[in-house]
Amino acid sequence: MAKQVVTRTYTASIRNQQQVSDDLDSLGFAASKLWNVGRWTISRVWDEIDYIPEHNELTAYLKSHERYDDLHSQSSQRVLQELAEAFNGWYGKRRNGDTRANPPGYRKHGDKHPRSTVTFKAAGFKLDTQYDRVRLSKGSNLKEYWSDFILCEYQTRPNVDLSTVESAQQVRAVWTGKEWELHFVCKVEVDVSEAPGEKTVGVDLGINNFAALAYEDGHAELYPLNCLKQDDYYFSKRIARCDDADSKQANRLHQKKSARRTHYFHTLSKHIVERCVEEGVGTIVVGNLSGIREVEENGESKDWGKHGNLDLHSWAFNRFTDLFEYKAEMDGITVKYVSERDTSKSCSCCGRERKANRVERGLYVCDDCGAVMNADVNGAENIRQKVPPSLACDGGDRSNGWLAQPSTFLFDKETGAFAPQEQITS
Ligand SMILES: [Zn+2]
């Protein structure tokens, strides 16, 4: 066992919900409005000069906008940062040939704005662990002369004591569909296990296979999204049938859908970390889409969908990597993020880069060395290779073709666990 300072997010309910919900609502609506202003601005810039602004450019541009002063400046900054991340994530996916990815949409249901999450950073909150209270700052537009902050009385889960954390980094006010809750992002000192080994594994996150893993010794695993897709489809249909999108029934369905996703991600992240422990992995390398931004040659990516996306990118991937990182950390495994740039274009066997980034029926075919492999596994292996191998292993000697037959793990609804799919031999 070793001591390590890690980041933890603790959820807390708000005991004085009645007193603060109107104030929190106004901040949540304001965050949605600012998101939409930013969203509109990005599409304008894109149309004019084929360029997606970075969040700091967006912030500089919108700082004087009226909506920016609805929230504390750090909270406004965070909204625009999330928007820029969502755009870059989508853009990276498109660039990697994922034509089904849609750009982030506007946050609007008809004339109504949803309640967006509001993030409060260092200067935007004051935590009082003695009385279990936190003061959240408003923007100058929403301040009334008697109160320029919202005082929330919180209640954490019984096993959490915020007075023992090293520091609280930020507080998020999150609308659950029913009420507001608080998420405290803290630095905490914990006991972690020794690393299970020194090997590396590459992880490619995507929309067809939610995760593709390429291990150092050459074998690979796929985790398709089948179960989550069925779930999404089922719930979306049922929610669409509700008369009112804000009705109790619709809210319940939203909550159920969200709970099932969370369960799925918990189980998947746990399963993958367990596999890594079994394989003696010390470092997990994950492809990170944010920070990728280049104009695509064929201009195809300008063809934005009319409807907002399924929110599977920004939403689900962040949620998954949070859980995943947490579980890996506890087992002494380091998670590193590398740019996913060009990882789907290059051949992981010979390194040759192809111009066309299309894959044939999910296969990557290299004209140069003749390798044929699952495209997502090829991506995962390229991601893995972005981190230099440890001294203990030389990376091994792999022959072509080993990546062609990854094992596939499917989520079994009956057992609630991931199990290898029976090999089908034709
Ligand atoms: Zn090749």
From TrEMBL:
GO function terms (MF aspect): DNA binding
Keyword Nucleotidyltransferase listed: no
Ranges where the Cas12f1-like TNB domain occurs: 317-383
Example GO biological process: transposition
Keyword Nucleus: no
Pfam families, A to Z: Cas12f1-like_TNB (PF07282), OrfB_IS605 (PF01385)
Swiss-Prot/TrEMBL keywords: DNA recombination, DNA-binding, Transposition
Domain Probable transposase IS891/IS1136/IS1341, residue spans: 183-292
Region described as Disordered: 94-113
InterPro entries: Cas12f1-like_TNB (IPR010095), RNA-guided_DNA_endo/Transpos (IPR051399), Transposase (IPR001959)
Family: In the N-terminal section; belongs to the transposase 2 family.
Record-linked NCBIfam families: guided_TnpB (NF040570), IS200/IS605 family accessory protein TnpB-like domain (TIGR01766)
Protein name: Transposase, IS605 OrfB family protein
Naturally occurring in which organism (per UniProt): Natrialba hulunbeirensis JCM 10989
